Each structure stands twice: as structure tokens, then as C-alpha cells.
Amino acid sequence: MLVLNPDAEVTAGALETLSGILDARPAVGVVGPLTRNPDGSVQVSFGPDLTPLAEWRQRRLVRGVRERRPQALREAAARAAAEQEPDWVSGSCFLARRQALQSVGGFDEAFFLFEEDADLCLRLRRAGWRVLFTPAAEVRHALGRSMDQAPERARLEYDRSHLLYYRKHNGPLLTALLRTWLALAGRRGS
User: Fold this and answer.
1) pLDDT digit string (tens) for 79-127?
2) pTM assigned to the model
3) For residues 115-135, b (16+ Cβ closer than 10 Å) or e, as one string?
4) How many CB atoms lie within 10 A of CB 27?
5) By C-alpha distance, which of 34, 55, 48, 51 is closest to 137?
6) Exposed, middle or buried by CB within 10 Å (0-12, 13-18, 19+), for 38?
7) Longest dimension (CA), the chain
């Protein structure tokens, strides 16, 4: 099953490459491609499970890439240069094995727009499937177009999904920490 955002475009040969990986490696449940911005720069499209420290590190990198800081651009490109097994791959584009998705019940419909990819990949890994990132396939993604349409709603949904992920996977202490941080930042989470 191909998952592809409406603001993402698969480049020539990418789908065949992703499909070939699933055909050749039966333990891989989902494979994500290298994701580039329309200008060709690398997006941060995979990463570690969501915990406060991991998120702080990831957000620093994402912010640096967005602000076009040379060091962050180099780091993002270096991280994306090799095939690897991250904890999650971006839902902007990935190819998933139907059997893998069925084994975990697919996406959790309680998530809306954010964190659904990290949740799905975590559940797949817990069920014994591998999550793979490959630079051998590429997509272009106009990151943020959905958020730009309704930024307040997008921020609210991000916070809701973020809290849901923490409640499901990180326990009450880290969820309370996230809820406190959102309150101090003046944001409304549910």
C-alpha cells in the first residue's frame, strides 16, 4: 500500500525501488524514501521514537534545515545518505506491506494529520516488522502546504496528536511533562 501526501510527488523509478525492497526483504513492513524539498534540499523524513530528548534533537535539526543553516543541511544530507532502520519514516510517502498493516490494524484513526506515522511504525516494530529508510528512492514534498491553509487548526491538531502519542506510548509521567510544556507555551492540547 502506497501512502502519499497530496503535496508529494514520486520521482521516476521510486515506486519500483520501494516495491523491490519489500519483495526482496520479507521482514520489512514499511519502507520510506529519501524526501526532498522542491528546491532539492533534504527533508528530515525519519527519526527516533518520540521522547523529550529525541524530539529536542530532531527539532533542532528540522529548524536548522528550515532556516537553511549550512551545518544542519549537511547533517540532514549525511543522515539521509545511507539505508538504515529508523524508528519511523514519514507518512508523506512510504510503501507498506499489506500483511504488516493488517497485523497491527492499520493507522490509528484517533490521530489526525500528525504523529500517525510514528505511531504506526512503533506498532509495526513491536509486532516484529522492520521499518526501513532508503535513499535509493526519492520523492519531492512541498512540506507545510496543509498547515499553511489553517495554521491555528494545524497547531491544535499537532498538539492533540502529540499528546495522544505520548499517552499511548510514553506513560503518564512523560505525558504530564508534555502537557505542562504545552500549557507553559500557551498552547491548547487535549
Assistant:
1) 999 999 999 999 999 999 999 999 999 999 999 879 999 999 999 999 9
2) 0.91
3) bbbbbbbbbbbeeebebbbbb
4) 10
5) 34
6) exposed
7) 48
